[in-house]
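Lab notebook, page 48
Experiment: co-folding of the full assembly
Goal: obtain a model of how the components sit together before planning crosslinking
Operator: M.T.
Materials (sequences as entered):
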Amino acid sequence: MTDILDHQIAEPDSLANPRHDWASDNARRRIKKRYGRDRLLRAFGLGAVITALMLLAILIASLTYTGYVAFYTTKVKVDIFLDPQIIDKENPGKTKYRKITKQAFYAYFPDVKNRKDKRNLSKILSSGAQYIVRDYVVAHPEKIGETVTINLPLSDPFDQLHKGVIPRWIDAAGKNGGNGEKMLNPRFKSEKVLVWFDNLVARDMLSSPFSWELFVNADSRFPELAGLAGAFTGSLLALLVCFLISFPVGIAAAIYLEEFAPKNRFTDFIEVNINNLAAVPSVVFGLLGLAVFINFFGLPRSVPLVGGMALALMTLPTIIVSTRAALKAVPPSIREAALGVGASRHEVVLHHVLPLAMPGILTGTIIGLAQALGETAPLLLIGMNAFIPSIENLGLMEPATALPTQIFAWGDSPERGFVSRTSAAILVLIGFLVMMNLVAIYLRQKFERKW
Amino acid sequence: MFGSLLILLLILSVAGFYLGRRKAFVVAGGKRSQLHSRPLYHGLYVAALVGIPTLLLSLIWIFLQRPVIDALLLQSLDPKAIAGLSVSELSLLKSQIKSVAQGAIFGDPKPIVVEAAERLTHWRVIANWAMVATCIAIGLFVLIATRSKIARLFRARERVEHVLDLLMIAASVLAILTTFGIVVSLTIESLRFFDRVPFLEFVFGLNWEPQIPIREGQVTGGGAFGAIPVYVGTFLIALIAMLVAIPIGLMAAIYLSEYASKKMRAIVKPLLEILAGIPTVVYGFFAVLIVAPAMRSFGAMLGVEIAPNSALAAGAVMGIMLIPFISSFSDDAISAVPRSLREGAYGLGATKSETIIDVLLPAALPGIASGILLAVSRAIGETMIVVMAAGIIATLTFNPLSPVTTVTVQIVTLLIGDSEFDNPKTLAAFALGLTLFLLTLALNVLALRIVRKYREQYD
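Observation: model returned without errors.
Model output:
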């Protein structure tokens, strides 16, 4: 070793004794140094692992911290007199509920008289409150003429204030040059509205129930009412198309390449193609969808059918690769036994090899679909980021949005409430991905056979 | 219409299956061992021959119907009325006719439009019914013809297997078709772009201002299409990402493959894989929500101005995304080094770190390098992080604290909400897409080459 050589040059007297003196101070120091370096590398490695895990923890923690508040909504209990003179009994859906709702809310603040103040007061309620009253009356037409208590959501600034996300007062000079002087948060019109808000708190009229809106509502311009139902449906439809195309086609291609294809230039070319497709940036699949499906074949924009087809082309390589691995894992003895009792090559594959490989294939398919569920760029390019305020009119050929594109749209919105909505949507999306992966792991562990 | 046709065809082939199977039973006369193939295959044979060709025919029909009817419609228009109209005016007229035919009538359409719209509706009905009639007729004919072929020694199984072979080959060819579709569509749109913007300006131009006026009188930038600043931004962000991902990923891989206990490996590896499974839109939001503001206030503490959408924030978050990518590739490469090399080094008295640095890493270098190349290709093609966290305006700068834009950001911003394929603004996205595709392809091919060469050394 070079160490021995160095030693000899450094200490010529040791030439006389060719045996290396391991006990000398120099040797000890060198060994100590060498092991010191070893510990250093080990520490660096551990540091890298810890850094990576910490980044993961920060990512999840910050999303949870900003997102959990979106799982409940601040609501105010309001007694509303459903005036039979205003509400049309025959057709309760057609009435304008704005006035009824506002009047009922004003009744709690008899001293607010001035029109401007009233307008500011009504801004404490969500702009969508009237539709909740409408839906209530449509569902309970027998209550017309009675006084009912309805839980109405607050508008975004007050919702956020009650959750403690935004402060009442901010530093006048902005974040950096804070000179201690406070000013009213510009989200609130005047100090009066805060007094009214405190009044509601003092009268114990506010509550924070679980936000079913997040799951059953479609998108909305008002963050306190925006939900993921439209995005769920769109993602589900697109994934369905993606599955229906990529699963059979992927399995067929994999079986051909693994079991039947002769080794020649053509099949080599197919394999190279599949490997390259797996590494093509997803945005290019969006361009392909735009140019071929929409521009050339004339399919409509924004629809789940086109989104699903673009995702299917992206998922195909994943499914082919995992199916081939699963087929390869089936031992040749199975094939030979089946051939030996007179099955044709196709029967061997369809009756024996494929069923045995199915758990592996399903695992790969689920992982591919999970990737497709989180994919955003191709959907953005083919326009699957439509604003969907209602889930009544969704289909394969209707404009739609998807979970990741909804996250993108909310993430770009200026309202404060959409920040927590976005984080909550991300938590929901990650929840879906975790579930799909758990199913894949379960399938693998339950059905995988070691040969 | 098309949906019900598909259902009809499905019913027809299922009927074919049962009829074929029954015929086989009848032919066998109770002695099924007399048949060459099991009755199931006779049924499948009839079903496949009925279902597949009619399905293909209906698909081709539905795609060809639109352009054919469009062409007929143009010919049927009074030549005097459309004389002197430019191409764009003609297409405007065409879309007007179509919207009238769909019942969306705005204002007072010209009589020629109304007439043509009626003709269009009429033709569409004819074409649809003709499609259904043709497909059903062919299906019935094939059903009867193939059913009559069923006999005792008819080799139905071999025929069915042949059909299966064809289907499987078709599925495999889809991969080629996809690549072909990407290359052709990107090339065609790029050529149309280079008709309007000189190729050399695109490749060597230093200005990128794609916001050209679409309407007359619109106030926009000059409309310059020099891609260099866009590419500089892309590489800057990719470089920052690699500076984050390579040290952490490589070190983590070394630790996990050489130092960590089996138990720790079993826990940490899946946790790292979670980073790879998180959708990129989530990373983008994370960059905007946490990383960029944190960097900004950190910069303010030091007295450095950091832009809210700086290359640093986008690149750093992209680096986090790529950590598991690098670590799993490096881990594989290090584990693939033959035991003999490792044991040889230990036998000579080397410490663990000496073995790793002097023996394992040089031997694993090709694998690690190809992993890094694939990660670079990922970084260049990554879209959502930069769309959310990087800038839109292309400035030619190498300063990581200032905002830069990337190829993918430009593709997305140029194409969102705009699908007219006739102005250089949208076509530019396809030219960028083509260069992006070629660049990532080259990186992948290079990476595969390196891996292949490396494999030859030890096997």
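Interpretation: The two ends of chain A are 46 Å apart (CA to CA).
Next step: discuss with group before ordering constructs.
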